[in-house]
Fold:
Amino acid sequence: SQTIHQWPATLVQPVGSPLSLECTVEGTSNPNLYWYRQAAGRGLQLLFYSVGIGQISSEVPQNLSASRPQDRQFILSSKKLLLSDSGFYLCAWSGGQRAEAFFGQGTRLTVV
Amino acid sequence: AQKITQTQPGMFVQEKEAVTLDCTYDTSDPSYGLFWYKQPSSGEMIFLIYQGSYDQQNATEGRYSLNFQKARKSANLVISASQLGDSAMYFCAMREGFNKFYFGSGTKLNVKP
Structure:
């Protein structure tokens, strides 16, 4: 069966520090991968999606970047965090025979 | 323009009663999918139900049903016989083509005993 791992679960980082969030998927190949951000009490904003290794599409201009160095690995990064980068970050995958997207447990990022 | 619109920020329902959560969508793609997810306070996203744009019948999954009205571009979620454990945020989502999933702003459902 397929599983998705996302870490860390919580993170507190100072303004101006770098960020690296990692997401890996097991049990499937060539998944579509997604990074979403959710502000407190709000909906999910699509940040990046990827249909293959090295293929990244950005939905909104921002302080973040994404990379897909391996088929089932998706990384969200920032060189210098801003206060506005705080939020709940969710990684997801889709593909195979199922229509829906499957989500990781999320990372709660607080920039102080 | 918003791809997914959920106009009910919060809803209350009495335990054991049915409740409808509204969702409208906007797309010019003839092939799309509509989804509902539940997000409890833990933050995990739980898939509930799916409706394809070419599906003729409304989707049902246990106590969940999706009222799909294509001409009106609406995809309302109906929860029958509400339970206390149904209290959560509910998100409507749309997949355009095969790749992008867009989510609405969510509806917070509170089930009263």
Summary: Chain B has a mean pLDDT of 95. Chain B has no helices and twelve strands. Chain B touches chain A through 21 residues (CB under 8 Å). The longest strand of chain B covers residues 88-96.
